[in-house]
Amino acid sequence: MVSRKMLITDIKKLLSSVFEKVGIVQFAYFFGSVAKGDNTNLSDMDIAVYLRDVDPMAVFDVKLSLHGDICRALNRNDVDLVVLNTVANNMLIEDIIRHGIVIYDMDSNARENYEVTSLHQAIDFKTQRLAIMGV
User: Fold this and answer.
1) What are the φ and ψ backbone dihedral angles of 2, each rounded to 5 degrees?
2) Which domain holds residue 52?
3) Given phi > 0 = left and psi -120 to 50 = alpha, else beta, which region is 134?
4) Sheet containing 45-51: which strands, arranged edge to edge?
5) Nearest residue to 105 (alpha-carbon basis) of 14, 34, 20
6) Residue 14: its pLDDT value, please?
7) 45-51 vs 79-83, strand pairing mode
């Protein structure tokens, strides 16, 4: 069985070359059950990317192309790709940031700013939700 550390190292290496070739991935996370080591035979591989300088109208095409590149690099077709630029779910973003593994980082300042802003939004959302619920 492949160790989790080796798996993460291999994923970083394989996907770094994909992200460098594409040229618009600013940072990326490996997250979910496989990243945590809690996977089963039915688990997919979860990858989240933040794209820089991408036209919002082109995100779908970019995601489709990038998904194919990632699947080929990892030699598997059960990859779930999340484009963070388009995610509105604060809880999902918080989970990715808190529990995911950074596997690519072209601009650590931009990533850290994104993380701080996103975590503040998640905290605000939770606070507002509790207030609405009367808790």
Assistant:
1) -75, 135
2) 4-133
3) left
4) 79-83, 45-51, 25-31, 101-105
5) 20
6) 95
7) parallel
> 87 in helix, strand or coil?
coil
What is the distance, to the nearest Å, from the Cα of residue 92 to the centroid of all Cα atoms in its chain?
10
Contact between 51 and 130 (Cβ < 8 Å): no
User: pLDDT tens digits, residue range 74-131?
Assistant: 999 999 999 999 998 999 999 999 999 999 999 999 999 999 999 888 777 777 777 7
What phi and psi values does residue 54 have, to the nearest 5 degrees?
Answer: -115, 135
Structure tokens at 52: 């820089």
> In the Cβ-directed half-sphere of 3, how many Cα atoms lie within 13 Å?
3
42: left (phi over 0), alpha (psi -120 to 50) or beta: alpha
Report how many domains make up the chain. Answer: 1
* CATH code of the domain containing 26: 3.30.460.10
The one-letter amino acid code at 128 reads Q
